[in-house]
Amino acid sequence: MSVGESVQGGTKFHFPPKMSLGKAMILLFLAAAAFGAIPVMKGMELPNPFLLGAGIVGGILVFVTVVMSTGAATIHILDGIVTVQHAILGIPRSKIIKCDEVDRVLVTSPQWGMAQESSHKNFYIELLLKGGEQVEIRSAMSDYARAQAIAAAVEREIIA
Asked: What's the whole-model pTM score?
């Protein structure tokens, strides 16, 4: 994660893609193995559901790899406006929120809601809006203390 001043002014928090290149290559290798198994299974005259299953597994692995290795998030805070932007394959999706609509910044866990420091492996940073809506900023952080520090820094910038 990097924090800095954006070109337009204000503060910008940038979260790089969630998956490293090494992990992406492993998943793509597994997808290639699944797709490569299709002609072998066809040669063995296995029923079509097996071929379809291998194709679905390969497709899911490719999809997950693309989303996890190209997905980045950015938070831009300027003039009382928070812009949360997620980009996959460079295609951005933005949500614009007024700072006074933000109640607080949370660290959550998918299993238990509000996170406590524990054995959970994934922590999420979310904006809790005064209307009760939660807006995800960054997902799948494995370090609770770092997630707490980032959430506190974002909250300070929103309140400032």
From this structure: 0.67
